[in-house]
Design goal:
The structure is a single chain. The chain is an alpha/beta fold and 281 residues long. It has a single domain (2-274), classed as Divalent-metal-dependent TIM barrel enzymes (TIM Barrel, Alpha-Beta Barrel). The protein has helices at 15-24, 48-61, 79-98, 118-138, 168-177, 188-194, 203-206, 237-243, 260-274; strands at residues 2-5, 29-34, 64-70, 103-106, 141-145, 149-152, 158-161, 183-186, 210-215, 217-221, 224-228, 249-252. Helix 1 (15-24) packs parallel to helix 2. The longest helix is centred in the middle third of the chain and has 21 residues, at 118-138. The termini are close together.
């Protein structure tokens, strides 16, 4: 099993710090992001200079960056807002490829599954067909993240609402409606935070379409959940790995900002227990 480093826990750090920490832990693969108004990402509208500086860091630290995260929502109910979103996504897909990405994480959207209309379903399907057509030209693959809508509570916890990528019927429809080459970024932690009683975490549906993977867990706190490292709570990754067909790079995505290095260290220690012999390079 190959293990790489996710980028979300680095979102407040300068880009070079991502590479430095990745190198410190011996990772060969690093995920990066575009947009989302995060200091640790390339800007919403990158320039050739931004790309050149990013590629230079990859060469200097001998780290590959084939995985890119783009922030989007294809379930926006306003048609004009959706058009603007599509224009942004298409442009950022081109920038992702210039940065060397082969796989791009997209969201389906954050409208609750119960509020999806046929018009919105058609909009989502059309958006992914158009985005995939561009990715075919660019030589990239789309990975749709399994991710609910998140609202943060006064106690710092997060409440996760079921979306079409955490909903069994929604995922089944996406698998039917989208091009077969469109894959999924399997994030079982996000599914757990919506359906903690479902220990299968939709793997039976998604197993043949996983082309990207985030490793994290969520644990109960106050009114909702707080993000943690794998091994911090009860998500059994050993059992999941035993059933997963995906043989690409699994990315540790430790989200908290206050103890990023320790969270990565705990994740690696847990992997030693459930996936001995994994490689970071």
């Amino acid at each position: 099993m190959r293990i790489g480093c996710g980028e979300w826990g680095f979102r407040a750090l300068p880009m070079e710090e991502h590479f430095r920490l990745c190198k410190k832990f011996g990772f060969r693969y690093l995920e990066f992001g575009i947009g989302g108004d995060q200091a640790g990402r390339l800007p919403e509208d990158p320039t050739e200079a931004d790309v050149a500086a990013f590629q230079k860091l990859g060469r200097e630290y001998a780290i590959e960056t084939p995985f890119c995260c783009i922030e989007n929502d294809f379930t926006l109910p306003d048609s004009d807002a959706h058009r603007v979103m599509m224009e942004k996504v298409q442009e950022q897909l081109r920038w992702a490829r210039r940065c060397g990405a082969t796989h791009v994480r997209l969201f389906a959207g954050f409208t609750p599954a119960a509020e999806m209309t046929e018009r919105l379903w058609s909009q989502v399907a059309r958006a992914f067909h158009e985005s995939d057509a561009l990715c075919v030209e660019l030589g990239m693959e789309i990975a749709i993240e399994t991710h609910g809508a998140i609202a943060f509570n006064a106690d710092g916890s997060a409440t996760h609402t079921n979306s079409i990528t955490t909903d069994r019927e929604g995922v089944s429809r996406l698998l039917r409606d989208l091009p077969a080459r469109v894959g999924f970024n399997y994030d079982p932690g996000n599914i757990k935070a919506v359906w903690p009683e479902d220990k299968g975490l939709l793997l039976d549906l998604l197993n043949d379409r996983i082309n990207y993977c985030h490793l994290k867990d969520w644990k109960r706190h106050g009114q909702g959940w707080i993000a943690g490292a794998i091994g911090d709570d009860d998500l059994d990754y050993g059992a999941l790995f035993a059933g997963m067909k995906f043989d690409g790079v699994h990315l540790i995505e430790y989200e908290p900002l206050e103890d990023t290095e320790d969270g990565i260290r705990r994740s690696l220690a847990y992997l030693e227990q459930v996936a001995p012999g994994f490689r970071t390079a």
